[in-house]
Design brief:
The protein is mainly β and about 150 residues long. The chain contains 2 helices and 9 strands, in the order H-H-E-E-E-E-E-E-E-E-E.
């Protein structure tokens, strides 16, 4: 009888097991990478007939919460000017510490390998605590080349 009870509990709790987070797996395996004090980001770029699509993962590595995370991507021309910026919004709206989430940005132009892209991410940071979550707005930009296929 005890064996059956133990077996039933094992079956119930085995159903609650959680596998690896697919966003963290993608963060480690996507070809483009950027790391800063607050954020880890990885991405891939695919070219479609209507333009390039940047798909990636962004991870909060610094703050208790990041709210309303936006990822902007623009193609940088030969003169160094960003053109045609597009935005993708990270869902969920609130990204907790050590949480990763996907993003997608659709560009209006093509971006073959070797094209320079300017990424800008923007969010409302919060350390939590007694200030009712009040924080500050942060923006960071960096340039990266479209990785080879």
């Amino acid at each position: 009888m005890r064996f059956r009870i133990v077996l039933v509990f094992l079956m119930l709790f085995a159903g609650c097991a959680v596998g690896p987070d697919p966003n963290l797996t993608r963060l480690a395996t996507l070809p483009g990478h950027y790391r800063h004090f607050d954020m880890d980001m990885a991405w891939d770029v695919t070219d479609n007939p209507s333009g390039a699509v940047v798909t990636g993962v962004i991870k909060n590595v610094r703050y208790t919460y990041m709210d309303n995370v936006e990822v902007w991507v623009a193609i940088v021309d030969r003169e160094g000017k960003a053109r045609g910026p597009s935005v993708g919004f990270v869902v969920p709206i609130q990204l907790e510490l050590d949480q990763a989430a996907p993003f997608t940005v659709r560009l209006h132009d093509h971006a073959p390998p070797g094209t320079k892209l300017r990424f800008t991410y923007i969010y409302q940071a919060s350390e939590g605590g007694a200030s009712n979550g009040a924080g500050f707005r942060w923006m960071q930009s960096f340039d990266a080349l479209v990785p080879p296929v």
